[in-house]
């Protein structure tokens, strides 16, 4: 059973990182709701996200670290292409520090939502701000102003 839970957690975490890469805040929160129903171990999900972000960063810098026959290869390569390396690094750091925040949050779901929203809000690739790096946020109002 633990293998199945690990697989489910990994899939859920891949979905979260994918939603981050797409800047899809609505999908991101939908995935959190789904996780809450299936396995509200948000600390474990955050750990899985850290593992995914680590593997994406490795691939971005040293592609040979990802085996050709890795079952997650397609997902990891797609994420590596969709996210700027500095965004991956910042998301990793936010997730790492977010682990400390989870026990302090009013509840675990609120804690992980705030960690994920931080990842959406702070992206350095194109100078920071709410509408940079991965593109325009989906499902939200653009903060971009006309020149």
Report on the structure:
With 147 residues, the protein is an all-alpha fold. The chain contains 6 helices and no strands. The chain has helices at residues 2-21, 25-38, 42-61, 73-82, 85-101, 108-121. Helix 3 (42-61) crosses helix 4 (73-82) and helix 5 runs antiparallel to helix 6. The longest helix is centred in the N-terminal third of the chain and has 20 residues, at 2-21. Mean pLDDT is 82; it is low at 1-6 and 128-147.
What keywords describe this structure?
147 residues; mainly alpha; 6 helices; 0% strand; disordered N terminus
Number of helices: 6
Gross morphology is: globular
Ends distance: 56 Å
Oligomer: single chain
Which regions contain 5 or more consecutive residues with pLDDT less than 50? 1-6, 128-147
Major sheet: none
What is the structural class?
Answer: mainly alpha
* Rg computed from alpha carbons, rounded to a whole number of angstroms: 15 Å
| Number of strand elements | 0
Helix content: 55-70%
Q: How much is the average pLDDT?
A: 82
How do the helices and strands follow one another from N- to C-terminus?
A: HHHHHH
Query: What percentage of the residues does DSSP assign to strands (E)?
Result: under 5%
How would you summarize what this structure contains?
With 147 residues, the chain is mainly α. Helix content is 65%, strand content 0%.
Helices and strands in order, then pairings?
Elements: H1 2-21, H2 25-38, H3 42-61, H4 73-82, H5 85-101, H6 108-121
Helix pairs in contact: 1-2, 1-3, 2-6, 3-4, 3-5, 5-6
């Amino acid at each position: 059973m633990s293998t199945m839970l690990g697989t489910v957690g990994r899939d859920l975490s891949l979905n979260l990182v994918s939603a981050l890469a797409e800047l899809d805040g609505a999908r991101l929160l939908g995935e959190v709701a789904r996780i809450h129903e299936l396995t509200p171990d948000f600390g474990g999900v955050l750990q899985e996200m850290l593992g995914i972000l680590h593997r994406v960063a490795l691939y971005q810098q040293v592609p040979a670290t990802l085996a050709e026959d890795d079952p997650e290869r397609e997902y990891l390569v797609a994420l590596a292409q969709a996210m700027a390396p500095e965004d991956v690094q910042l998301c990793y750091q936010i997730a790492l520090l977010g682990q400390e925040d989870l026990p302090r949050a009013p509840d675990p779901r609120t804690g992980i939502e705030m960690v994920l929203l931080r990842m959406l809000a702070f992206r350095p690739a194109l100078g920071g701000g709410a509408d940079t790096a991965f593109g325009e946020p989906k499902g939200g109002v653009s903060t971009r102003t006309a020149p």
